[in-house]
Amino acid sequence: MAATHVIAHWDPEDAGFWAARGQRIAARNLWLSVATLTLSFAVWMLWSALVVYLGAAGFRYSTNQLFWLAALPALSGATLRIVYSFAVPVFGARRWAAWSTASLLLPALGVGLAVRHPDTPYEVMLGLALLCGLGGGNFASTMAHVSFLYPRSRKGYALGIAAGLGHLGVPLVQFVVPVVVTTGVFGALGGAPQTTPQGQTLWLQNAGFVWVPLIAAGALAAWWGMNDLADVRARFAEQVVIFRRRHNWLMSWLYLGTFGSFIGYAAGFPLLAHSQFPDATVTHAAWLGPLLGALARPLGGALADRLGGGRVTLWSFVAMAAGVVAVLLCLPGDARAGSFAGFVASFLVLFVASGIGNGSTFRMIPLIFLAERQRAAAATPAAQAQAQREGSREGAAVLGFASAIAAYGGFFIPKSYGSSIALTGGPEAALVAFVVFYLTCIAITWWFYARALAPLPC
């Protein structure tokens, strides 16, 4: 049965093949990938929504310990992405998608069981936070598969749709968790609720249990509905050539600035807002920024297809630097009360700008590596065809590897908040460091990709 899911020949650049067969198969794989990736992001960012409730439920953790729980899924997810980015050509997209989606049952069930008891050791919670990183790893393999599926002219669209709609898992978890933890949706099956000092009843276990049936359905859908492409099978040794490519490292740095910002701000925003504006209601609106960022990602891919990825990415970084400066101006301090409305508005700018930058940088990567290989090849049809295969393989590997490096932003941003607050009493030092980082991204983007005489304009 499994053999029927393997496609022996795949050539999306052939217009006849694409119209007769390729477009339909690619669309089915794309939308199944969106579904499984959405669940992956929801599990990955589960702690970003859950940590806000732990104190009220009787878990006695410091603010810095809570930031550790919010940050650790990104650390493990980023590390797993390094492995996952090379998995599709080795194991096949269908097999890997089904297995990696099913693995999300471990953190979903584990979190649901652990948070029922306030005396659960903190070390156990740290371990479960690391397990949630399984959801973060899936992005790298999904993007590699989508990159193989679509022709060059449609890569920006396809990667933007897969990543942008997959990112909806972040606002989804931040919207769903506040609803389900205040409702006994599973009745006696979910276990006894927790009671806050104010008399409110909470079911923290629902934050994990609610995803279990969806994960099981997603794994089965991937197994029966997705395809393996025989043409893109490759050994690990054939892919590691990317580590000798300068643009692999440059684009990883830039994607750290775009996706790393999106996932880092999503992981840290609810707890940062709660710590700086304790009297404001945060939990029921925290999902709005990630939602706008996720929806902006396809727009970034489309703008890059039309205007050029380098130009769109450059202005995205300018907007992010300005957004962080605005956040700094809105924070409360010794001589000012701060502006919660301005704080939220500034973060909305950051989410939208990072979402647009996500789409544009991901559009740049496959085009850069195709162009490099084709420039280096002879002008004969055979050499150009080989260069296209090598460029597509390298571009897909870089998409995965760059996404792995970028995911560390989900750790560094919330952990920077916690460390800055612990050392200086506020998050200002972390935010100033973010501005400096964005300035380096602006310089790299302009010099290598956006200026008139750039080495690889795109």
What can you see in these coordinates?
This protein is globular. The chain has helices at residues 15-44, 46-54, 63-84, 87-91, 93-102, 105-114, 122-131, 133-149, 155-166, 169-180, 206-209, 212-225, 236-239, 246-276, 288-307, 309-330, 340-376, 381-407, 409-424, 428-450, and strands at residues 6-7, 194-195, 201-202, 228-229. Helix content is 73%, strand content 2%. Strand 2 and strand 3 form a beta hairpin. It has one domain: MFS general substrate transporter like domains (Growth Hormone, Chain: A, Up-down Bundle), CATH 1.20.1250.20. With 458 residues, it is an all-alpha fold. Helix 1 (15-44) packs parallel to helix 10 and helix 2 (46-54) packs parallel to helix 14.
Give descriptors for this structure.
458 residues, mainly alpha, two-stranded parallel ribbon, two-stranded antiparallel sheet, globular
What value does the average pLDDT take?
88
User: What is CATH's topology name?
Assistant: Growth Hormone, Chain: A
Please give the order of strands in the largest beta sheet. Answer: 1-4
CATH homologous superfamily - what is it?
A: MFS general substrate transporter like domains
Got a strand count? 4
Bulk shape: globular
SSE sequence, one letter per element = EHHHHHHHHHHEEHHEHHHHHHHH
Supply the number of structural domains: 1
Count of DSSP H/I helices: 20
Fraction of residues in helix: over 70%
